[in-house]
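Entry 14. Two folds queued back to back today. First construct below, sequence then structure tokens.
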Amino acid sequence: MRPIKEWESINERPTAMLPSSSTQYWERLDYGLVKENCDWAMSKASDFSVGGIVLRNHNGIFIAGAWHFFPSVANPELAGLLACRRAIKLAMEINVRRLVVKIYSHVVVIK
């Protein structure tokens, strides 16, 4: 079997995709605004987390990105807040003047 055909057969996508109930779409921003997207993950084996950050301009074009290691942070709400704080610091480092920050953690928003 040729390598490309073998790869395609191994990575074949299912023909029927179930609709996602959490489909998210890019919301066009006003001119000059920058939107941050941050996400975080926790280690089950250790007490640390990591956060990833992406900054996009009003057209959705990538401006900057970063990741950060948070040692001794095993609380998901705290990890989310630290990732958002890192996104704000990144925006300040590259002189973003108008930043849109959205937090998708229900628990963090309530507190």
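Second construct, same run, same settings:
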Amino acid sequence: MSLLDMPGTLKQPLRVGVRRGCAAVVLSLHGELDLYTKALLFGELDEVLSPSQAYPPGVVVDLSELSFCDSSGLGALIGIRKRMMAAGRPLALVGVQGMVARILHRTGLDRVFRCYLTVADAEHALADVHA
């Protein structure tokens, strides 16, 4: 197996879509979240939380188009949660399915993260948190 055949090695690089809503900024992940791509996610989060940007009440991370997540990717999600908690801001995950759902369940993190079926559900819940 070549390096390009391994998960997380440029076959499906991570793309992060950003959409600002009223209750949250939605980060939509497409591709693979791993050791090689987590810096891109952190960079987008830094941009969203930048003092020059309107600070979002919360952040929704949409995982519905995530094709792969390893322990480094899971660590990135935990890091985002810690950062949001320290800022007193809510975080929600959406589209948790397949491998990511199994990882979160096996590690007990499905009880730590707020998980919703749709972005609309998550935005509504986060709006209620700050109402």
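Quick look at the second one. The longest helix spans residues 71-86. The two ends are 53 Å apart (CA to CA).
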